[in-house]
Write a structure and sequence with these properties.
With 260 residues, this protein is an alpha/beta fold. The chain is 35% helix and 25% strand. It has a six-stranded mixed sheet with strand order 1-2-3-4-5-6, with helices on one face. Strands 7-8-9-10-13-14 form a six-stranded mixed sheet. The longest helix has 15 residues, at 187-201. The mean pLDDT is 98. The structure holds zinc ion and fe (iii) ion.
Length: 260
């Protein structure tokens, strides 16, 4: 069975490596150098590059990796992806060369207009979601509307609760600090904060999380929850008509949030 390895990049990115024996695929290689070092150290050949969206911290290593390894590039059809060989959209499937897994594609616009995510089974259900869903948070709305992102997150929230969530950044403690401002009385959230702090104190990633964890504690998946709605309405200073309005208010609240 393939294993999934975190390759840290920049200050807080994770490049996810899916490895099976002498082959590996890489998700969102923003930087080629740590990937090439890992391949050399482990005597592994790169067989695929998979991108979720066009931001440089996710695709910046594509061209150097293609030059060094010849690995083909899969990425979202609706975005400009360096070196892309295969354009993907909702419902497409990727048989990852040399790895023996098939990943399915979901359209999840909002952070960017053409953002995609990959789902599959690697010792249980897995999700590679780039900058759409984070552990305890979600991506900023650079290109999409609140309605788009709310729908994309609802699609991810509907996955098997056991799904392991491989997001692209270690933002968890800051996200959970904000979540605690939205739902200060949540015991599930307090337990998650303690567990995440313990992981970081050991220098370990807090990622992957699970869809079950996110549904229980991530305010961006909880716009339909009465406590989250009440907090959003208090922050806005008026009643909010729809769950999308609650989501938009919580997203804007986080954009200006500074923990103290
Ligand atoms: Zn991004
Ligand atoms: Fe990013």
């Amino acid at each position: 069975m393939p294993s999934i390895i975190a390759i840290p990049a920049f200050s807080d990115n994770y490049i996810w490596m899916i490895r099976e024996a002498g082959h590996a695929a890489v998700v969102d290689p923003g930087d080629a150098a740590p990937v090439l070092a890992w391949l050399a150290d482990n005597d592994v050949a790169l067989t695929a590059i998979l991108n979720t969206h066009h931001h440089a911290d996710h695709v910046g290593g594509n061209r150097a990796l293609v030059a060094a390894t010849g690995a083909p590039v899969w990425g979202p059809a609706r975005e400009a992806i360096p070196g892309r060989d295969h354009a993907l959209a909702e419902g497409d499937r990727v048989a990852v060369p040399g790895i023996g897994i098939v990943l399915s594609v979901l359209d999840v616009p909002g952070h960017t207009a053409g953002h995609i995510a990959y789902v599959g089974d690697i010792g249980g259900p897995v999700l590679f979601c780039g900058d759409t869903l984070f552990a305890g948070g979600c991506g900023r709305l650079f290109e999409g509307t609140p309605a788009m992102m709310h729908a994309s997150l609802a699609k991810l929230a509907a996955l098997d609760p056991a799904t392991r969530v491989y997001c692209a950044h270690e933002y968890t403690l800051a996200n959970l600090a904000f979540a605690s401002a939205v739902e200060p009385r949540s015991a599930a959230l307090a337990a998650r904060v303690a567990a995440a702090r313990a992981r970081r104190a050991e220098g370990m990633p807090t990622v992957p999380s699970s869809i079950a964890d996110e549904r229980a504690t991530n305010p961006f998946l909880r716009a339909g929850n009465p406590t989250v709605r009440a907090a959003a309405e208090q922050h806005a200073g008026h009643a909010l008509a729809t769950d999308v309005d609650v989501f938009a208010t919580v997203r804007a609240w986080k954009d200006g949030f500074r923990p103290h």
